[in-house]
Every structure is written in structure tokens, then in C-alpha cells.
Write the C-alpha cells for this entry.
Amino acid sequence: MRAFLLCLSMIAAVLAAGAAQAKPFTYVNERFGTSATFPDEIFTDRQEPPENGDGLKWLSKDGTSIAIYGSYNVLDDTPGSLEKSGKALPGRTVTYARTGSNWVVLSGLENGRVFYERLVIGPTDIIHGIQITYPEALKAKYDPLVGAIASSLRGP
């Protein structure tokens, strides 16, 4: 809970430094229980959900996107295998990678856009994920936000 409150205060502080005051919104995926908190005044364009109900994606007016989703760990992935497969995706250059006992964070460039991805393998073998992508020209705006948003990722 302390980390969640810290995340919200970091988002609020960064946004207060900018022109807009954005309120936090927490999305909870019904199928997998995956959740994350983000400023809904930035990510205003909710996309149509996929038929399988594995998550949702939102877009901002400046071309940034956030996707929050869950999936079954059918390949028995580990943080190390997720890192390896994430680095091997076509069009992707990973410049930052860290793993923990049940998580991986990857960041870099993908098809000319900055990406930040965090995956957590839950105790029920569900992979909870969040991915934020934005134009390189907006690094100064989004780099301070992505870590706090991604740290809010939770799953049962």
C-alpha cells in the first residue's frame, strides 16, 4: 500500500510540475485481476477491448499509448526467458533491462518509439503486464512518469 501511495504521489508531483493536473485512474482487468494506475486526463482515448478480454489500451492526444493486460503463463516463462524473448522482438532495441524474482522491466526503442514494459509473474502463474510507448520527442514529458505508472502494476 505504501508503494501504491508513493506511486500516486509521484504521478501527482510530476503532473503538478507541468501544466495539467491529471487525476489517477485505476484500471482492473476482470479476467486476470491485473491492475495499474495512470493519469486518465492524459490517456483519454480508450480503445475497443479484445474479444478475449485480456486487457485494454488507451491513447493520448500526443501519440502516447498505455496497455494493461494479463495472460496465462502457458510457456512456463521466467523473468529471464521473458527478458530474452523481449529483447529478440523485431524492430526493438533494448537499452535497459532488469529482472527480479518474479518480474522483468525492458525499455528502449521499438520501431522508432520509446517503449517501457513491465511484466510480473503472479503466484497463480498469470503474467501481468503494462507497456507504455511514446515518441522520442516526448521523452522529457514521459520519462519521469513511466516508472511510477509501471510500478503501480498489480495482480492477484
About this structure: The longest strand covers residues 126-135. The domain at 2-151 is CATH 3.40.1000.10 (Protein Transport Mog1p; Chain A). The first helix runs from residue 2 to 17. DSSP finds three helices and nine strands in the chain.
